Amino acid sequence: MIDRIRSRVRPAASQPAIARQRRTSRRDREMQQRRLLYIGTAVVGVLAVLILLGGAAYQYYLFPRQDLASVNGEEIERRDYWKVRNVQLRQQVAQLSQQYQFVSADQQPQLLQRIQEASVELEDVEGADISSDTLATMIDDLVVLQNMEELGISITDDEMEQFIAEQFAPVALGEPTQTPTSEPTAAAWATETSEARIAAATESAAASPTAEGTPSVETTGTPEVTETATDDATETASTTASPEATTTAAAETTGTPDDGTPDPDGSPSAEASPSPSPTETPSADQARSTSEATYRQFDDNFLEPADMSRGDYKRLIVKPTLARQKITEQLSDQVPVRTEQIHAAHILVATSDAANEVVSRLESGEAFEDIAREVSTDTGTAGTGGDLGWFPRGMMVDPFEEAAFSLGVDEVSAPVQSEFGWYIIKVLEKEDDRPIALPTRQQLQSSVFLDWLKIQRDEADIDADIPLPEFDDDPTQQDLFQAPPEAPIPPTATVPPISTIPVEGTGTSGADDSQTPEANETPDATTPDATPTP
Question: Is the dihedral angle over the CA atoms 437, 335, 331, 481 positive or is it negative?
Answer without folding.
Answer: positive
